[in-house]
Sequence to fold (134 residues):
Amino acid sequence: MADIDKILSVYCLLAPGSCFWVAVLEGKVVGTVAARMSVDQRYRKCGVGVVLGRKVLEFAAHYGYSSVILGTTAYAPAAHRLYQRLGFCCVGSLLEKIFYRVLHHHYRIDVQNISLKWTPTTVNAQVTKNEGNF
Fold:
């Protein structure tokens, strides 16, 4: 998994006050979220993405953010399902041309209007927060 293999080089440049979360399951790093989310393919559909997504929403609500906006491409249907499961709504799409034409979807959730009392039951993953102390 590229993101987990490159944690230090990819995420050490986080701005002050930003966070990096790591999901650990049975002693193994199975997912991360900071500027982007990544879950080891062997642990997808186990609830790891939901746990990481909820941590981001809890962080945003705790620090007074009004909403969280994210995006994904049309080539990631599992990401679309995850974002919808977390309560995000698709607020628009944009056809982008980087190396080829790709449809990019934008999602939004108003974090001040959601209940964060939810506890995941599908996975027992330990999620830890790192504030730049690698």
Observations:
- The two ends are 19 Å apart (CA to CA).
